[in-house]
Amino acid sequence: MIEVTGLTKHYGSHIAVRDLNFSLEGYGSYGLLGPNGAGKSTTMNIITGCIAATEGNVKIFGYDIYEDACDAKRQIGYLPEQPPLYDDMTPSEYLRFVGMAKGLRGAQLHEQIGTVGEVTGITEVRDRLLKNLSKGYRQRVGIAQALLGDPKLIILDEPTVGLDPRQIIEIRELIRSLGRDHMVILSSHNLSEVQAVCGHIMIISEGRLVASDTAENLEKLLTGSTSLKLTARASREEAAEVLQGAGFVAETEESRDGNGKIQITVQTSGDIDEAAEKLFFAFAEKRLPILSINQVTASLEDVFLELTDGHDPDDADSVPVGPENTHEKGDENGLDIHP
C-alpha cells in the first residue's frame, strides 16, 4: 500500500506540489496524469526518496520514506524520464552493476539478471554497448534495472517519450504485464497512454490532485456529462416551448441549410432512456417530428481538459536534484536543514 499525506514541495517561491493526498492498494497499473509542469516528476522524485518534501509524509508498504528509507526504497523500482544508463556498458554489465548496488550477489544476482532480461525482452542485445542500442531497447534496459531486487512498486516516469509507434505499443504491453505482479505507477502527460495502460487514473494540476478514479467513472465526473443530442423539424420558438413544458433545459441551434430543422442538446441527470422517451412524446404531442436522437457522453479528454483548465504549461516542475533539495526534513540528529 502507498500512502501519500499532505505532500508539499517548495522551490523558493514556487510551489510544485500542494498538499497532495492519495493512497493506493493492490497490484495493478495506476496512472498519474497531468499537463507538463503539473508536479508529476516532483511527486515521483519525492515518493522514491530522490528529493525531500517541504511538508508531508510518504509510506511505502508501511515504511516511511524518510524514517525507514532503506526498507522503503527496497520496495521501489524507479525509471526516471531520462534512464540512468552508462553508455560504455553492455546491458549485462549495467544490470550487474545495478543489482550489486541493490545488494544482490552470486546466484541470486545472476538469476535476477536473466529473469528481468527475459521479462523486458533485452536478452538478444545483452552483450551490445548501450550507446549502440535503439531508444526502445534503452527504455527496456531502464525498466529491467527497475525490476532488479523484485520490488513491489514500479514507478515509471514518461516511459515512452521519444519512442516510435511500434516501440510505444511494445512498452505499453510490457507495462500492462508488469501490473499483474506489481503495483505500477505510470506518470505521463499523454492521456491516451494512461487510458490504454492504467485501470485507475489520478489527475494532477498545478501540484494538486483534482480527480482519482477509474477512467469509466471519471468520464461520468462532469456535471451534465451525459446528454442527448437530437434533430427535430421545428422552429426555435416551438422547440423552446416543448422543452420548457417537459422540464428540460437545452441548447438549440437552427440548421444552416434553411430546411426547418433544429439541433438540440439536452443535459440529463437521471435515466437517459427515460429522458429520451419523455422528449419523444413531448415533441410528438405537438406534432413536431424528431428526426434523430443520440446519447452523447463526455470523454476522458473532456474531463482532463476541464479539470486542468488554466494550467500554465511553462510553470515547469522539473528541478534538478542536488544537495540543496535532499535534507529539508531534517537530519538524523533532529536538526532542521534548509537550502
SSE inventory with pairings:
Layout: E1 2-11, E2 14-24, E3 28-33, H1 40-47, E4 55-60, E5 63-64, H2 69-74, E6 76-79, H3 91-101, H4 106-120, H5 135-147, E7 153-157, H6 165-178, E8 183-188, H7 191-197, E9 200-205, E10 208-213, H8 215-218, E11 226-233, H9 236-246, E12 250-254, E13 261-267, H10 272-285, E14 290-297, H11 300-307
Parallel strand pairs: 3-8, 3-9, 6-7, 7-8
Antiparallel strand pairs: 1-2, 1-4, 4-5, 9-10, 11-13, 11-14, 12-13
Description:
The chain is of the alpha/beta class. Among the domains are: 2-75 and 151-220 and 305-325, P-loop containing nucleotide triphosphate hydrolases (Rossmann fold), CATH 3.40.50; 226-297, Alpha-Beta Plaits (2-Layer Sandwich). 33% of the residues lie in helices and 27% in strands. The chain has helices at residues 40-47, 69-74, 91-101, 106-120, 135-147, 165-178, 191-197, 215-218, 236-246, 272-285, 300-307; strands at residues 2-11, 14-24, 28-33, 55-60, 63-64, 76-79, 153-157, 183-188, 200-205, 208-213, 226-233, 250-254, 261-267, 290-297. The strands form 3 sheets. A 6-stranded mixed β-sheet has the order 6-7-8-3-9-10, sandwiched between helices. The protein has a 4-stranded antiparallel β-sheet with strand order 2-1-4-5. Strands 12-13-11-14 form a 4-stranded antiparallel β-sheet, with helices on one face. The two termini are 31 Å apart.
Structural class given helices, strands, pairing? alpha/beta
The largest pleated sheet is described as: 6 strands, mixed
Q: In whole angstroms, how far apart are the ends? A: 31 Å
Overall helicity: 25-40%
Shape: elongated
CATH class of the domain at 2-75 and 151-220 and 305-325: Alpha Beta
Strand order of the largest sheet: 6-7-8-3-9-10
Low-confidence stretches: 312-339
Number of beta strands: 14
Number of helices: 11
Strand content: 25-35%
- The appropriate CATH architecture of the domain at 2-75 and 151-220 and 305-325 is 3-Layer(aba) Sandwich
In CATH terms, what is the fold-level topology of the domain at 2-75 and 151-220 and 305-325? Rossmann fold
Rg result:
26 Å
- Arithmetic mean pLDDT: 85
Order of helices and strands: EEEHEEHEHHHEHEHEEHEHEEHEH
- CATH H-level homologous superfamily name of the domain at 2-75 and 151-220 and 305-325: P-loop containing nucleotide triphosphate hydrolases
